[in-house]
Amino acid sequence: xxxxxxxxxxxxxxxxxxxxxxxxxxxxxxxxxxxxxxxxxxxxxxxxxxxxxxxxxxxxxxxxxxxxxxxxxxxxxxxxxxxxxxxxxxxxxxxxxxxxxxxxxxxxxxxxxxxxxxxxxxxxxxxxxxxxxxxxxxxxxxxxxxxxxxxxxxxxxxxxxxxxx
Length: 165
Known about the structure:
By secondary structure, the protein is α+β, with helices and mostly antiparallel strands. Helix content is 38%, strand content 13%.
């Protein structure tokens, strides 16, 4: 058997093994109620579980953070300041950090979260907004940028080619 034929045979074995594993996972999930994790309506499991203490429903984003002392703003994000429109004369550079529980700062104090640390590192003239919630996915982060743009003006996307040093 040539080297190329051996590689093709090995690739076929790997592809077959992956197909069998995926089929087995599909059967398991269908039998055990795993179903579609992206449903937009409540399921029986959601009703049994009830609301979670760290979140409240949001019609646009699915959920945001539930009120928690003074560390969750009115929009439902773990940021000490409410998000409000800013004037053109404001010289503060604003950074929006999107994320899930890692950016939100699960299991740590709000002051120790990544956005607060980044704001401290950047120093005066910078403001870092923590737009995150535990369990969020990329779709919710994308939708949140639209809400921030509506509330606070335009959102500019940075790419390495457009940044300055």
